[in-house]
Amino acid sequence: MSISKGRSLRQVGRQGVSSITGRHVRRILAASVTLACAQCAMAQSLTGGLYGHESAGNGMTVNITSHATGFSKDITPDADGRYSLTGLNPGEYQVSLIREGQSIAQSTVLVNPNRNTPVSDLGVGAAAIEHANDLGAITVQATTMSTNVTLIDVSTPELTTSYNYKLIDALPVDRSPESVARLDSSVRFDQHNTGFVSMGGASPAENRYYYNEFDVTNDKNSLGSTALPAEAISDTQLITNGASAAWTNATGGVMSSTIKQGTNDFRAGYSLYFTPPTSRLLNPRGHNTINSIGDYYNFAAANTHAGSAQQYLWASGALVKDKLFFYALLGNDPASRSESFGQTQEQSTSTRDKNYLLNLTWNISNDQSLNLLAHRDYAQSFNNYYKLNANYSPQSVGNWLSWSQQRTDTRFLIGNYHWQINDDLQLRLMGGYLGSIVYSPNSSGANAAFPYVTSYDSSTQKQTNIGRNNNPFSYSPSDYWRRGYKGDLTWQLGDHKLVFGGEYYRHSLASTTESVPAGWFTYYNQAGVALPNGSVSPATGRYVSQYVDVEGGSFQTINKGAYVEDYWQASDHVMLYGAVRWDNYIYKDGLGNQFMRLPITSPRLGFSWDVNGDSSLKVGGSLGKYSIPLPSSFSFGVAEPRTTYTNYYTYTHIDPNTMAPQGLTQIGNSYITNQGVPTPAQIAATNIKAPFQYEAQLYAQQQLTPNWSGLVQVGWVNLRRIVEDTCYGGGVQAYAQSHGFPGYQQNNATCWLLNPGEAFTLKRDYEGNGTLDSLSIPAAALGIPRPKHKYYNLKLGLTHASTPAEPYFLNLSYTYAREYGNTNGLIDEERRNGGWIGQTSAFNYPGIMVGSNGNLAGDIRHSLVATGTYDFSNGLSLGGVVTAHTGAPTSCLGSYPNINDPTYKYLPSQAHFCGGQVATQGTDKRLPFFWQLDLSATYHWKINVSNDLSLQLRVSNVTNRQGTIDINQVYDTGLYGNGSPIDSVNYHAASWQLPRTTTLALRYTLL
Questions:
Q1: Which of 485, 474, 385, 380 is nearest to 429 (CA)?
Q2: Bridge pairing between strands 692-703 and 520-525
């Protein structure tokens, strides 16, 4: 009997068997479809697994074979008929049921990385076995659905989604993990701030990224990852929340990608991704924005780019048949140019990139494999700056001013070893390294000698570069590296699968930044303005500021982790999960001294209920405590040797050559914000604890028909603790003076770390005798509240798998969500601050927290993503993505209405006050409804048996819709000396949706 690949064993059981080898006799054989959970869960692995349950009786053997790699292994089901096999390289496997050396039935299974694939019951029942002797060998052939849909995996409580590159290539998106994640409606794209995705209600800085099991999260600032070429990605797994303890702690989501591997079959190819130059039809220009006085808030309509290309040559195959395989990639982006215009200058930019990648897979034996991945990337950008002879006039380009450039050298090395020691023990080891050096010479030697000079126009509220130097800073090379090791041992002990694991990551960031030697000056023309140093600008309105910033050093952070997991098969249909994870985050200052150590224990619980016993309906859930490590930039910001101050002067005249002010007379004292090298005691409270939140989810996955499946998921997140800085020395001073230290003084400019809203212990020289003493200070002494961030969501999903009979894929994903509180997490999304992890302006002073509790920037109530493809028989394939969501809330941010309060002095225009009245966060207005249509059309030519060619047209924002994606939230730019606001002319000025973008993709494959 032979059943086509599009049909399942369930269909055989209903419809009967139409043919039997060697006989013209119709027989109806009952096919059991009972599948039991195989007690095998995968996490953070570049290999996959399969599991099943056989009802054919004792004496059966299951053979798993891969023709592509030469793999072959026999396993024996247990007494209940259950079997499983993990550590398999991704690809197709043939699963055969063997009785007395004879194949009774077969199934083809697609194994994906990070997941276990259920295998349909191959047994043909007692009746089939009884008739086998009379009828001869019976072959039942079926295929576990190897389509573009993630099968329901009942072996884990995790709710995960896997995307294969073949599906992504048919859609108008690229293969990068961020692009893939945006296909899920519960994932929010932070297009108004960071340009990265947010998952589980967390900020975009709280996700973790993996390549081949190695954590590649960009620990410079926690935003995004150090990336490998998207062309080399095979699969990407998405976990939006509820990850198991084996993953590195994350309060956001997880994006885990694996790199393509070779097989016995030699393949090679060429890919070209070409973006045509700026044109009205294919790649139109951006949208200008005019502010309330008719001036430009954003000037983009003159910007242009030339055509650009990404091209790759690749090959894969076997160096030693059945043993050693390779995948190699050569990438090159030829130089491409773009021009952008500001008020007084044109910037002409040229970029290029080249990279190399090699992935080796050694199947040492059927039980051992070793994978080595190496990558190197060289990227460079070069800028020329030209003067505009008239403001905002691209037609008036004048003399060349200066140049700048940036070169980036990135390298990867990752190794993975998997060993199935015996039927009950499995060992996994991983080690990796990545490094990135950024060279940023700021300008030509001649112009670097000039001061950096800008002018602020109070009528337009614009700051314009009027000097010859185009960069206020000079930089040393920024050297970032990360080393990591991980290992775990899995022990199958009866109905319990125990996992014991640990990991160690060390990362470092070294860089220095200095103001240009000649200084950074800014001219002002405002009279009677309250200056941050406590003075008032002169009646003439003519004054100049001088800003000085010297900072930098080398900083290292260590993240250690260990975990124990228990997957307990409590019954045939129910698997229970219990785990505990321990982490220790260690931070060192620029001198190598440890200034903070944050250990934390995170318990996790979960369950998976295979309701029908055949993987057709899964009910799962999880509850856990989750933390997040802070990036290198956190240590850099709070522990670096740094001196920053601003001086204010009147002046008599301006040097016409350098544009520097002459005849200076200082106004008041220096406004000092940082001074010298902080000690560990100055950096942080001594009793600071690690951040954490609680998460819970409950969901159900149902196979509605052989091709349709559905999902219902509810989630809850409650943030309980964060690490932030505060600067309210006045609160410490008042408490110390009333508790035995009447002479103690502390300013409001020096910041330190603590857990907001919790009691803290500070070491200070309270008695003024040169000796540090500890003082325990209650949270009430600062008047700063606890952090609050709550997130709820309901997600509904409906998916149709593409089959030969129904050649279309469709995924509908809808999410309802609520997000509110007084903090977004690691970054301040409300104030559009994408950096300074753990050092946002929130929690700095009591005044900044007034009105802070409300709808957060991510409070988008309704989101819908529809993704689909359709394959025609003539080689044409169409793909599309529709994204739509309701608007996010915005705030009205202004100055605290007391010019003597530190909130105004140090954080002008950042408090929740507008016109002197409290404006609660998220209550200004909501952005309008957003929608976008992206389409692709691909045509495939099968030139002959060995050659395949495809051409794709990919268009983002097909309609060129110019929707509002953000508005300026700053109500005023400061206060006059009498306390009245200086109204901002840019308040409510809009930022626009990106215009239509068109890309052509050509792919040629030698099969």
A1: 485
A2: unpaired
